[in-house]
Amino acid sequence: MQSGLVRPLPNMLPRTLFNAEHEAFRETVRKFYEKEVVPNIAKYETQQHVDRDLWNKAGAMGLLCATMPEEYGGYGVDRLYSMILIEEQAYAMDSSTGFSLHSDIVANYVNNFGNEDQKKKWLPKMASGEVITAIAMTEPGTGSDLQGVRTTAVLEGDDYVINGSKIFITNGYLCDMAIVVCKTGSNEKGSANLSLIMVEADRVGFSKGKPLNKIGMKGQDTCELFFDNVRVPKENLLGMEGMGFIMLMKELAWERMLVAIICQAGSEAAFAHTVQYTKDRKAFGKPIGTFQNSRFKLAELRTEIDFSRAYLDRCMELQLDEQLGVDAAAAAKYKISDMFSTVVDECLQLHGGYGYMLEYPIARAYIDNRANRIYAGTNEIMKELISRSL
Ligand SMILES: Cc1cc2nc3c(=O)[nH]c(=O)nc-3n(C[C@H](O)[C@H](O)[C@H](O)COP(=O)(O)OP(=O)(O)OC[C@H]3O[C@@H](n4cnc5c(N)ncnc54)[C@H](O)[C@@H]3O)c2cc1C
Questions:
Q1: Which CATH number does the domain 251-388 belong to among 3.30.70.260, 3.90.1720.10, 1.20.140.10, 3.40.1180.10?
Q2: Is the pLDDT of residue 3 over 80?
Q3: Of all protein residues, whose CA lies closest to atom 16 belonging to ligand 1?
Q4: pTM of the model
Q5: What does the domain layout of the chain look like in residue ranges?
Q6: 20-131 adopts what CATH topology?
Q7: Residues 343-381, buried b or exposed e (16+ Cβ, 10 A)?
Q8: Ligand 1 site, CB within 6 A
């Protein structure tokens, strides 16, 4: 397998988001991916999950939950650090590590809605990598329509008793704790039925399926979770009963941004690989990059990618000021994930037959990218959200 490590080409409009401390952090993350992840991607893809000790190494280097407050094991830094982590993962063309879901989604739920005991119990161990986490919303019978969740949590004495199952859960196979979206109310109340309950993986009745056999992202341990009369103390409830839907809504704009960031950086990585390839590969006695079609295709892609970069970085500025609207974030997620699909398709074409071979990073990017248009809300749901703002 060829190394996916690549540096993006400079954008036509220079980026302005980062200071020297951010860039120093970027260097640390880059080295981590170069040394610890890239050499092992083939192994992760074969076993369908990363090694557990990779999480401990990431934690020891301060790469997990960095935005969490210092008293809970983080560094209290801004979300540009999350952006850098995701970008460097994409520039390494890695789709195995599920750090972002753990640090930028699950940790936010615990920090935003957990009580002091819950934060102290979970966040420091999440930051060190001792505890790996997942968020379990989707079920075999419902994905886009969260209100259709059928997993139930019934209060019996001081315990919730949970029954049901979840599917397509990122970090599911390795997780030590999952935040599970459960129905706690009666059928009539719709979204007011939903609650978030933290379930430890060693609870009796909690079992995991094998990592699912996906078309791409093969090193990512996406799996099914099953709950058979799982008893958890009522202290495991996050926030208030019946407030699950509202809590899930709070960070949705940010969660969509995470996907947009992956796709933007993934497009830049695929583009950089392809520019290099078209310089190296010769046909008819000259580099394929010298043909007018290749040059025009690359110019078009450069333009698409840079227009999108400007929009995304502006969204990020608004996100840092907590001013990013749901519609703007939905637009970033849908448009940039669509662009990523176009970019990898055009880039694969410029690789010719080698682009179809899995040992080439562009081939893996081609299949890995596809899920981005589906998770964190499908692109059709994003268009629903945008249209509601009209
Ligand atoms: C690799 C991967 C990782 C994932 N990780 C997680 C995770 O960690 N946790 C988790 O909970 N889930 C996860 N998911 C699940 C993901 O969030 C869902 O697959 C997604 O929300 C879509 O739900 P669904 O698959 O049930 O599709 P459905 O909701 O059945 O949708 C099927 C099709 O119908 C369309 N559709 C549905 N409703 C509408 C509508 N109102 N208007 C127009 N079109 C509509 C959809 O856009 C889609 O094209 C993951 C999925 C994948 C593939």
A1: 1.20.140.10
A2: no
A3: 375
A4: 0.97
A5: 20-131, 134-242, 251-388
A6: Butyryl-Coa Dehydrogenase, subunit A; domain 1 (1.10.540)
A7: bbebbbebbeeebeeeebbbbbbbbbbbbbbebbbbbeb
A8: 101, 134-138, 143-144, 168-170, 217, 222, 371, 374-375, 378, 380-381, 384
